[in-house]
Amino acid sequence: MIVTPGIIGRLMALGAFVAVAQIVCFSKMDVFGSDPDVALLVVISLGVLGGSLTGAVAGFSIGLLMDCLLLETLGGFALAMLTVGYVAGRYRETIGPPTRGATALLGGALTLLGSGVIAAIQIGTGIDATVSFLVVRDAIVTSLIGAALAIPVLWIVRLVVRSALVDERRAARRRPIVTRGGADQAPPVQ
To answer: Which pTM was predicted?
Structure first.
């Protein structure tokens, strides 16, 4: 990802919008007894599009903003989203840009990872909560929702940051050289 002041502004606006929308809108939705975690999907998308550094920084920034807005334990969401953004970026750097099927699987798996990291942080910080089957069911349903929403969220994030993506720059097409006989031949080597 090519980082310019304009792209930094777009990423800041996207992060602020997503954090507020997650807290105000998406957390109030009820889809099969769970809520979609669109902020986590945006972090996954930024990691897949920009790499591990972009994903980690975006995840930490959006997570810290959500922690501040919710008045929660500072750093809980930030650490979970940093982890997910980094893993998504490492996926892109080692395997390459994901296909549509891999995007859905990546969205579901990393949403499940994010739910697990948030649960581990809450248990580690001493929040008294009972762990039951409902927590596991909620994590599985959230990951299925994440798998379903991964492709549209990736498409929207790609539209926002398209001008900064290195992969989106199209190479100039080369035309074959046509000789008098009409056959395609390479020019002679001198």
So the answer is: 0.82
